[in-house]
Design a protein that fits this description.
Elements (H helix, E strand, L loop, with lengths): L4 E5 L5 E7 L2 E7 L6 H15 L9 E5 L5 H18 L3 E4 L1 H6 L6 E8 L2 E7 L10 E4 H10 L2 E3 L7 E3 L2 H11 L17 H12 L8
Parallel strand pairs: 1-4, 4-5, 6-9, 9-10
Antiparallel strand pairs: 1-2, 2-3, 6-7, 7-8
Length: 214
Amino acid sequence: MKGNFLAVDTSGGYLTVIARKDGRVHTLFERDCAAQHSVRLMPAVEEALSALSLAAEDCGFFCAVTGPGSFTGIRIGISAVKGLCAATGAPALGVTSLEALAYTAEGAVLSVVPAGRGFYYVCAFGADKKPVSPPARVDGEELARLAREYPACSYGPLPVPYTEADPAAGLLAAVEAAGEERLGELAAFYLKKSQAEEEREAREARRPAGEGKA
């Protein structure tokens, strides 16, 4: 998509903020930012905009990576972009972390995001960067099988051969390739329930029948 924009990615352990103005691009990338997204995001946004003398109201749209990834990180990025959209009246663009990964590789690719506890978020993309399989959460055995069909790409690390991706480059390419028909409301993209939700459901499942009811 053409025009001026600001894009953020807080879905992983890193932080990416990209600003573009009149064809010029300024990228801010911090590799180790997992517990600092809420502290670092807005100063990074201000720094990226300032580097290009780009005012927020001059952005044609704002983009956030919607997941899958860190539940807290995703919410931080989406909330920030929604706030910028509300303040300026500009529309929003959502890009998944799997989609951004796909744009870091040529040809068909298996995008992989580590999901913790031996699981992985995956999606296979064709050479045209369109999904050829639904996004899924898989274990290591299924990941190994898929990695035999498609070359894997990840921000790493993985237990299978893979190409280490550049998060910022993938996000920029995905945003530039997006069409205007994708502008609209932002919504988090989760492939599993949060740990808190899983623990709550487990407690409720162990509760004797009738307990807690009036």
